[in-house]
């Protein structure tokens, strides 16, 4: 059994930056109708600058979620691979508490905002993200359907679609870990296979096939973590190490948004466009690798602002859309700049409060639940063995 690994704090910082990008992405979606009306999508327009240039990395929300998935595959699997006498039942019970309790709280807040502050579709652009992906009314039945995290869409809190796959990965973790251990010597082939499966999922419109292989790439990285760290240490000692680090970071960022940059020649929905879209999976994995092994990036991610964002990341992810959608309906998406100016600080403040009041207590409850269930399971197993 490998020795326990020192916490990779830079990964917390990366998670925080990714959560911030997701929030910027949703603010961008509110702005899109006005940006298109103001100057269209022609080169040189504000929409073009924000959508088809490297600036897109600031609002690449869907791609940032892929970073979350790779991080979960790595960070969630690591204790299972490195902790002696790991309890799967204890892990799963604690994981469910850690996911569900904050999710239920965010749905309660989202529902309360919908009930207290009526949403008028006339205030937003028909067919826009605000109009089509966010509820204008809701019922207790709708709320109960979404608290399970098993439905395909979530109009009370739009971001919950990704938690559905986090939950599925948690349940399937023993299988993912076992397969990753089996293929650890053929890691490059296994990553290529995971990418191919993810691409097939996009082409066939099967979300499970599209997203679950991304978690597997992170799990393979967890299995290979010692080798990754040794490889990066050797790289650091070589001449031109900084150039290599810059190339890895820049290359990963380019892969994340390449399908946006290439839209004039590879339209979305075409085979080339789909391949470029899924290259973001490799970009996400490259960023996680860079966070582990590139010194200048690791230092940036270990900075106080990044670490604070890392602590707030889950709360920020859960709370910003109810606030953003409420303000967009109240003010109108034509005032997207005002919506943005209010949403960003309010979401950061609300995330801090959500973290203190709800997420941290859920973490403590999750740890206690995991310990109790693991102890109980161990006693039952010992009793059955004696029989």
Automatic annotation (TrEMBL):
InterPro entries: Acyl_transf_3_dom (IPR002656), Acyltransferase_3 (IPR050879). Residues 10-354 form the Acyltransferase domain. Keywords: Acyltransferase, Membrane, Transferase, Transmembrane, Transmembrane helix. GO terms for cellular component: membrane. GO terms for biological process: polysaccharide biosynthetic process. The chain crosses the membrane at residues 12-35, 55-78, 99-117, 163-182, 187-206, 212-232, 244-262, 274-297, 309-330, 336-358. The keyword Transmembrane applies. GO terms for molecular function: acyltransferase activity, transferring groups other than amino-acyl groups. This is Acyltransferase. It comes from Cryobacterium algoritolerans.
